[in-house]
């Protein structure tokens, strides 16, 4: 894309972003999403029936040297207007992009690094990934602590509190209302409760640094979960009876 088209894209996506998030300037949004310094960037744009943009998912591949080995760090920004949520619309796009990258670089370590600013994002990772750091299931965080410190420095992520490793200043605040917050506090989902316990300041724009090793096994697991979810929706009982 040439410069004018990129600026049009920034304007278009920032309007969507401001409907979903608060706390980020247009300049910062552009540098994160459209003008990322990643080696590769791909952006999915969701449009409604009228052709208006209602969501986006940007995925970035940063090639880094981590602990003396050539590695890739995947970072993402995504948002979808409230009226269009509920069908996990980004997962197929993300899986295709990550799998294609993974298959063309055998032997390279690949991680996903998220500075997650909402429990729903952590829940998705917990659902689709085979290993997530930090998590209630990963009792030992030695690997997490070693890699996350280096990644935080590489990406300039500043901790909120030195005594709480992995919680950083992000600034992006999801536009939840008081009812939404109370629902999340009362959620029976163990992943949501773990996230809130580790990052109670997410409503202030604090992010929980979350690391996922992206292996072929992880990709196969995520793809299998997606297929099962789609089948369960397809064969779920129709609220108005059977369809002929």
Topology:
Layout: H1 3-20, E1 21-22, H2 26-33, E2 40-47, E3 53-66, E4 69-80, H3 91-103, E5 109-116, H4 119-128, H5 142-154, E6 167-169, E7 173-174, H6 178-185, H7 190-198, E8 206-213, H8 216-234
Parallel strand pairs: 4-5
Antiparallel strand pairs: 1-7, 2-3, 3-4, 5-8, 6-8
Helix pairs in contact: 3-8, 4-7
Could you give a quick summary of the protein structure above?
This is N-acetyltransferase domain-containing protein. α4 (119-128) crosses α7.
Q: Can you characterise this structure?
A:
The structure is a single chain. It contains eight helices and eight strands; from the N terminus they run αβαβββαβααββααβα. A hairpin with a 5-residue loop joins strand 2 and strand 3 (53-66). It has 244 residues and is of the alpha+beta class. It has one domain (62-234). The longest helix has 19 residues, at 216-234.
Total DSSP E strands? 8
Mean pLDDT: 86
Alpha-beta classification: alpha+beta
What is the helix content? 40-55%
Strand content: 15-25%
The rough form would be described as: globular
Query: What's the Cα radius of gyration?
Result: 18 Å
Uncertain spans = 238-244
- Give helix and strand order, one letter per element, not per position: HEHEEEHEHHEEHHEH
Organism: Pseudogulbenkiania ferrooxidans EGD-HP2
Protein name: N-acetyltransferase domain-containing protein
């Amino acid at each position: 894309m040439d410069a004018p088209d990129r600026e049009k894209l920034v304007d278009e996506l920032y309007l969507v972003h401001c409907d979903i998030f608060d706390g980020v300037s247009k300049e910062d949004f552009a540098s994160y999403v459209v003008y990322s310094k990643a080696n590769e960037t791909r952006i999915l744009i969701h449009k409604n029936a009228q052709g208006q943009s209602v969501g986006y998912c940007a995925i970035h591949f940063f090639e880094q040297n981590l602990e003396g080995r050539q590695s890739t760090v995947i970072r993402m920004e995504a948002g979808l207007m409230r009226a269009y949520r509920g069908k996990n619309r980004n997962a197929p796009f993300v899986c295709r992009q990550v799998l294609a990258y993974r298959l063309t670089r055998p032997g390279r370590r690949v991680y996903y690094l998220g500075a997650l600013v909402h429990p729903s994002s952590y829940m998705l990772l917990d659902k689709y990934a085979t290993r997530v750091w930090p998590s209630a299931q990963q009792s030992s965080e030695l690997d997490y602590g070693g890699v996350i410190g280096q990644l935080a420095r590489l990406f300039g992520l500043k901790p909120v509190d030195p005594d709480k490793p992995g919680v950083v200043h992000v600034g992006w605040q999801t536009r939840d209302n008081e009812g939404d917050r109370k629902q999340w506090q009362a959620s029976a989902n163990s992943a949501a409760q773990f996230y809130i316990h580790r990052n109670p300041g997410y409503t202030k724009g604090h992010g929980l640094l979350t690391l996922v090793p992206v292996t072929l096994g992880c990709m196969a697991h995520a793809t299998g979960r997606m297929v099962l979810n789609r089948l369960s929706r397809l064969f779920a009982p129709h609220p108005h009876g059977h369809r002929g």
